[in-house]
Design a protein that fits this description.
By secondary structure, this protein is an alpha+beta fold. It has one domain: Immunoglobulin-like (Sandwich), CATH 2.60.40. It has two helices and six strands; from the N terminus they run αβαβββββ. The protein has a six-stranded antiparallel sheet, with no helix packed on it. The chain is elongated and about 80 Å long.
């Protein structure tokens, strides 16, 4: 009986020690994106632009807006998701909703920008739909 009490006591102490020294869980934090607009890239950024995986000519645009982090902690590596359509309601990026990322979003509302390449044959104006972001309360990639 004394031996089983000792085993239970040691097991409890190990469990408490693991809880005290384990790293904090990194929860996914949602970021609201609003006030979305876009403009053409400066000449030095857009020169020689081609679409991903091809040699097809592309136009360079910068998408800008506001990122609202409602948590009281910075959010890191926030992936930006959304859909972009051309003037004919055709998708600009086929089968792709992850558009880029924001390295750090401080608590509150802040500005963000994202560079995109759009095939040159797709007519403007572009339509930016269903934009959102999600990131982590601690740095994930090092």
């Amino acid at each position: 009986m004394r031996r089983s009490f000792t085993v239970i006591l040691i097991t409890c102490l190990i469990a408490i020690a693991i809880c005290l020294w384990s790293p904090p869980a990194l929860a996914l934090t949602q970021i609201k994106l609003s006030n979305l607009t876009y403009h053409e890239c400066p000449q030095e950024l857009s020169e020689g632009a081609v679409t991903s995986g091809t040699t097809m000519a592309a136009n360079c645009y910068i998408v800008t807006g506001k990122a609202e982090n409602a948590s009281n902690k910075p959010v890191y590596d926030a992936d930006i998701f959304g859909r972009i359509y051309d003037a004919n309601n055709e998708p600009v990026m086929q089968n792709r909703t992850r558009l880029g990322s924001i390295a750090e979003v401080p608590p509150g509302t802040s500005d963000f920008e994202l560079r995109i390449s759009v095939p040159a044959n797709q007519p403007t104006p572009l339509k930016l739909k269903q934009f959102k972001a999600a990131g982590f309360s601690g740095q994930v990639r090092r």
